[in-house]
Amino acid sequence: MKTKVTELLGIRYPIIQGGMQWVGTAELASAVSNAGGLGILTALTQPTPDDLRREIERCRTMTDKPFGVNLTILPAITPPPYAEYMRAIIESGIKIVETAGNSPKNFIGEFKQHGIKVVHKCTSVRHALSAERYGVDIVSIDGFECAGHPGEDDVPNMILIPAAVAALKIPVVASGGIGDGRGMAAAFALGAQGINMGTRFMCTKEAPVHDNVKQALVQATERDTNLMFRTMHNTARVFKNAISEEVVAMEKRGAKFEEVRHLVAGARGKVALKNGDVNDGVVSAGMVIGLIHDVPSCAELIDRIVSECRQHLGAATAMVAV
Predict the structure, then answer these.
(1) pLDDT in tens, 39-76
(2) Which 3 state secondary structure label does DSSP give 148?
(3) Which of 94, 105, 204, 258 has the most CB atoms at less than 10 Å from its CB?
(4) Are residues 265 and 194 in the same domain?
(5) What is the pLDDT of residue 75?
(6) Which of 164, 182, 206 delimits the end of a domain?
(7) Is there a single domain that holds both residue 52 and residue 181?
(8) Number of domains in the chain
(9) DSSP 3-state assignment of 284?
(10) Is Cell membrane given among the entry's keywords (predicted)?
(11) C-alpha to C-alpha distance for 123 and 290, rounded to whole angstroms
(12) In this structure, are 99 and 194 located in the same domain?
């Protein structure tokens, strides 16, 4: 496939693996890249910038294809050493970075000075326009269906993608709610130049996630997610399990973040993903779980999606042929 995204990133197919905390490791990123997509390592999954350097080198032993690094910028009382992570990315020779969370404006300049392409993930057209002004190369637009933080506007991708495409001059990647070739075809029809998938790549053989968790997502429906932190204006879409149900119930009773902190701690979620106790930690997941029915390899998944996309675009074209 040839789109502006494949040309900018030097990849075979315009399919990007989203940066996922605890999941974006060398095993998954290299498998996605080897299959023709763009694998993404998650910087903050690594405890220190030096650990990130080692993970980048490890990934290079597993693929000779392009891969990137996600740097998610979040508000925190004691923030991670973002500047040091940025330095590790630059000094390791990475040429593609996905930024997310808060505005990347303080990072873009230095990334661009070192010839790094920046893909910024955002949840609204107004934030996408700001990112474009700051100099990002591609915007990954995240609809309300997505896993993780969908923002507070609650706009789904059927509206958000074409609105972003109409407003921006740079390429748009569709993110959230995409898990098969039909979704990719729809994204192209709406004007996107590529797709970003997180939850779907969690349910692959190479994802560093316990099979119990993968099977729970496979068996789930599109109704099996929860929106936490709505009352705190920091909405997060996660898998509907005992933990997220308890958090939502506590919020309805007026609980503040400090009262639920022990339930939603990242370390607890990391253990759940590793040990397979799906009810013992927060598991990020999008509504696309309703479209996930198996656990293929990344190569099998990408080949299938590309084939399905071409079939559905062809069928749609045939319906309007005159």
Answers:
(1) 999 999 999 999 999 999 999 999 999 999 999 998 77
(2) strand
(3) 204
(4) no
(5) 76
(6) 206
(7) yes
(8) 2
(9) strand
(10) no
(11) 22
(12) yes
188-207 residue pLDDT tens: 999 999 999 999 999 999 99
Q: How far is CA 72 from CA 41, 76, 148, in A?
A: 11, 12, 12
> For residue 29, what are the contacts with CB-CB under 8 A and spacing of at least 6?
17, 39, 40, 41, 59, 63, 67
Beta strands in the chain (DSSP E): 15-17, 39-42, 67-73, 96-101, 117-122, 138-142, 172-175, 194-197, 225-228, 236-239
Q: Residue 193: which CATH number?
A: 3.20.20.70
Within 10 angstroms of residue 205's Cβ, the number of other Cβ atoms is: 16
Structure tokens at 257: 């973040």
| pLDDT tens column, 257-266 | 999 999 999 9
Of 83, 81, 84, 52, nearest in space to 68 by CA: 52
**237 and 285 in contact (C-beta within 8 Å)?**
yes
Alpha helices in 35-192, H assignment, sequence order? 49-60, 82-91, 105-113, 125-134, 157-167, 181-189
> Which tokens in the block code for residue 147?
């896993």
Q: How far is CA 47 from CA 44, 52, 57, 72, 267, in A?
A: 7, 8, 16, 14, 12
* Residue carrying structure tokens 């709406």: 190
Q: Which pTM value belongs to this model?
A: 0.96
195: three-class secondary structure by DSSP: strand
What are the backbone dihedrals phi and psi of residue 298, each rounded to the nearest 5 degrees, phi first? Answer: -60, -40
Phi, psi values for residue 121, rounded to 5°: -95, 130
pLDDT digits (tens, 9 = 90+) for 210-247: 999 999 999 999 999 999 999 999 999 999 999 999 99
Which residues make Cβ contacts (< 8 Å) with residue 82, sequence separation at least 6? Answer: 71, 73, 107
